[in-house]
Amino acid sequence: MRALPGLRALPLLLLGLLAAGRAGRADGETSVSPFTSLPIREETTTKHFNSSLETPNISLTVRSSVPVEKNITLERPSNIELTCQFITSGNVNSVNVTWKKGNKQLENIHTNATGSILYTQYMFIITDSKQMGSYSCFLEEEKEQRGTFNFKVPEVQGKNKPLITYVGDSVVLICKCQHCSSLNWTWYSNNGSAQVPIDVQMNDKYEIKGTNANETRLKITHLSEDNKGSYWCRAAFPLGESEQRVELVVLSYLVPLKPFLGIAAEVVIVVAVILLYETHTQKKKKLTDDGKEFEQIEQLKSDDSNGIENNAPRHRKNESVSQ
Amino acid sequence: MAHRAEPPDGGWGWMVVLSAFFQSALVFGVLRSFGVFFVELVAAFEEQAARVSWIASIGIAVQQFGSPVGSALSTKYGPRPVVMAGGILAASGMLLASLATTLTHLYLSIGLLSGSGWALTFTPTLACLSRYFSRRRSLATGLALTGVGLSSFAFAPLFQWLVSLYAWRGALLLVSALSLHLVACGALLRPLSLMEDPVVGGPGAQLTSLLHHGPFLRYTVALTLINTGYFIPYVHLIAHLQDLDWDPLSAAFLVSVVAISDLVGRVASGWLGDAVPGPVARLLMLWTTLTGVSLALLPVAHTPTALMALAVAYGFTSGALTPVAFSVLPELVGTGRIYCGLGLVQMVESIGGLLGAPLSGYLRDVTGNYTASFVVAGSFLLAGSGILMTLPHFCSLASTSKPQDRIREAVETKVSLSKEEPEED
């Protein structure tokens, strides 16, 4: 089959999904289940099942007429086995089970029943992006019961907040992908409304480094104001692409400099006010002191004839005058 | 200006309190909130966390070891020019840091330059404050030191907001502008001449006389021991709570409660220090002992209420000992020698501060939990308070020493020193 070459690096996913299925998460979900991304156990499980052809078992349990959904991330072509488990009211023979992708009805379905529980299975191989999307199982009784499997490529995480930098500085834009293996990354900048791929060979202003397969780094040096705007990192998987936007803001150094100068001016004014106030009060004090001293000298001249003990106060006054 | 017999105890002194309040905020508040820049710098320079945290460590170390320099210069030229110069240095350090392209630039600009600026501001200001007050000294010091606690609340969100607007470079530039207010604080430090100033002489003479002063040396040892135990809970309380399976939100709430009780303790102890007659050293011993006891009991508490109560007690008592610790010194060495005295004390006690946290971390690694480190911290505090009992006039009911006593003591020390050395200072 055409899928065989794609299967050579086999399905960490499948096994992870198997493990996830074992964990019993599928049972008992009557609301939209949380995003089931490829589990972190994929690294360890790969070692065991290196190139076996085991298929993962992704299952859903539908209890009432509330539709149940499961999201699955998939990177590369794999064998898939989807199982829906319906709980019927009574007669299992008079029910009709169908699988659909969009409007197209699917073949290759196996159904069996035990008691009032109906199992239906659809096995297929995902080879390219056209086969990603939503697959649904339907049970037609009085009310229709439905389960949906959504296949998506892994999401790429960038940074939510804009990155602020300055002219002449350099910056590193990072995009990460959890639970992914080695990928092809490309970076795009925006030129007006269109995305323009960034050419690394053109000049050494741009440099793309990736320390490990899960992340990519775009280093931009010698920033100028035209470098601001949106940048996209795009990850190419065998089964599709996903991208994320990172926003860059380039400020000129004048932007924080203006508040700085404002505050510095305010400090200078405050210092001037304090020092001026002090010289003003000292002048006032000196005037009154001089006035007092004049009176005291006059008094001393009249007291001088009385005795020697007036030497001490005069001594101290001389000290204060000289200072 | 006439030499005053007594410190003014008010008047312009309250402006000095204001200046000291803003200074503690601008020096220690900035240092404590530096963690906001930490994350940004690690990402920007692509360096390890340990290497980036050296920036703050160098800054603190330079501030503490440089304290005697600030003190000596203040004795010679008065606090005002020294503090204003320090403010300009601190602001220039931050300004240059905003232009940094490597981590070494940051070590030199923030660590060395701003650190020297901070060394020239903090100690001279507190010493100046001690000279302006005698009856209300503890209250004034307590009020001034609340600046540290309040600024930690205010600056962390402020810095975060600045970083979100201007990135770390612009934010550092604006923190530099903020630090320029240290110059304004320095302008408020009007010089004051007290009667004992001409007697105690220049900085060289003062340092020599201090090193021969028995009670001063004992006090320095006591403070070093206290400092070793003092900082440990700040560093390890949250980790200890996590070990006890507290969730992060409750742990953060408890730390905030401790910070508030620390603030209350500072002001209450300041007021109490002035209201109670007798040497302030007795109150210091009381608070230190209580802090040591609450620290040592901390590992024993397991229920949330007991932990909360002990943590509040620790916050209150540790806050209470700070203003009193600064007030004891003028009583010991006199307000004439306060600049040099405070500088020396800060330098020596910083050794305790630097050793305390790593020692506690080591104990934790060896024993597996924080019991040993809290108990050791408590015992350091109790040892320090024990040495405090050997200070003079400890058991007497006499009020704080009068200026004439201090002058007499200073003259006696100078005379005995000049007998030993042939040359005059």
TrEMBL record, chain A:
GO terms for cellular component: plasma membrane; synapse. Pfam families: I-set. It is a single-pass type I membrane protein. Keywords: Cell membrane, Disulfide bond, Glycoprotein, Immunoglobulin domain, Membrane, Phosphoprotein, Repeat, Signal, Synapse, Transmembrane, Transmembrane helix. Residues 1-28 form the signal peptide. It comes from the Eukaryota. The chain crosses the membrane at residues 260-277. Interacts with SLC16A1, SLC16A6 and SLC16A7. This is Embigin. The gene is EMB.
From TrEMBL, chain B:
It is a multi-pass membrane protein. It holds the Pfam family MFS_1. One of its GO terms (cellular component) is cytosol. One of its GO terms (molecular function) is symporter activity. Gene3D superfamilies: MFS general substrate transporter like domains. The chain crosses the membrane at residues 12-31, 82-100, 106-127, 139-160, 166-189, 216-237, 249-268, 280-300, 306-326, 338-359, 371-398. Keywords: Cell membrane, Golgi apparatus, Membrane, Symport, Transmembrane, Transmembrane helix, Transport. It is found in: Cell membrane; Golgi apparatus membrane. Its main location: membrane. InterPro entries: MFS, MFS_dom, MFS_MCT_13, MFS_trans_sf, Proton-linked_MCT. Residues 13-402 form the Major facilitator superfamily (MFS) profile domain. Proton-linked monocarboxylate transporter. May catalyze the transport of monocarboxylates across the plasma membrane. Belongs to the major facilitator superfamily. Monocarboxylate porter (TC 2.A.1.13) family. PANTHER family: MONOCARBOXYLATE TRANSPORTER, MONOCARBOXYLATE TRANSPORTER 13. This is Monocarboxylate transporter 13. It comes from Canis lupus familiaris.
